[in-house]
Write a structure and sequence with these properties.
Layout: H1 3-13, H2 19-38, H3 43-50, H4 53-62, H5 71-98, H6 111-138, H7 143-148, E1 150-154, H8 162-167, H9 170-173, H10 177-182, H11 193-198, E2 200-204, H12 212-236
Antiparallel strand pairs: 1-2
Helix pairs in contact: 1-2, 1-4, 5-6, 5-12
């Protein structure tokens, strides 16, 4: 990959804008490098004139108007994520209960069941801890936010890192999320308290609106998890 392409890719990674605006910026940058090459100038000269990829992206993002996610959009997205996690966790816990693993002393559980379910429970614990931070740091969104067409970014529109993603989730780990979430109702940028600390915002995807079916899917996911739970008890529970 050429220096120009690496530079353009890094700029675009930090840009938060609608597809047509991204295409326009990318075309402008390629035009700058093409003109410089025709004039016999090195790509490094163009980069020195434009600034770092972060500076170029920040200047471009500053011209965009962010559409901050509402309290209800964020809540429904969270319900969707919680429902998805429940769809994974509840069946495992139910099978563990039916197999006599959950609720029993380890010494009373057969090693045949204890080891696999122990590994499954560790995986569930890891899922609960890392689901939000890893997805938001890597993609800027969880499954619920994807359905609701929301994204987590820094206040300047650039992607958030893993550190910021963990910071904004601390209230979730310490069971203070409801207090943290109330700040969304009273802050200009619809930020939770820890969003302010992490300097992050939750915004609607540029040029996209939340489809009506997404609200329904997010709200039905917890119900689907409970139905799965009841089916397992009906199939494998005591007669």
């Amino acid at each position: 990959m050429t220096t120009a392409n690496r530079y353009i890719d890094e700029v675009m990674r930090n840009v938060f804008a609608a597809a047509e605006d991204r295409d326009r910026l990318q075309a402008d940058l390629r035009s700058h490098f093409a003109e410089a090459e025709a004039e016999g100038r090195a790509p490094r000269e163009v980069i020195e004139g434009l600034g770092t990829p972060e500076e170029v992206a920040a200047a471009f993002n500053a011209e965009r108007e962010f559409r901050y996610a509402s309290f209800w959009q964020r809540l429904v997205a969270f319900v969707g994520d919680a429902g998805l996690l429940m769809c994974v966790v509840l069946p495992v816990l139910t099978l563990g209960f039916l197999a006599g693993v959950v609720g029993e002393e380890p010494s009373n559980v057969s090693i045949v069941w204890l080891v696999p379910f122990g590994l499954l429970f560790l995986a569930i614990l890891g899922l609960g801890i890392f689901y939000f931070p890893l997805l938001e740091a890597h993609f800027g969104k969880t499954f619920g936010k994807y359905l609701m067409r929301l994204r987590v970014v820094r206040e300047d529109g650039s992607p958030i890192g893993l550190g910021a993603s963990f910071v904004r989730r601390l209230s979730f780990y310490f069971d203070m999320l409801w207090v943290d979430a109330l700040f969304v109702l009273f802050t200009d940028k619809r930020q939770r308290a820890l969003d302010i600390v992490a300097k992050t915002i939750v915004v609607r995807e540029p040029g996209e609106d939340t489809p009506r079916w997404a609200w329904i899917v997010c709200l039905l996911l917890p119900a689907a998890a409970i139905c799965c739970l009841l089916c397992l008890f009906a199939l494998f529970g005591p007669a």
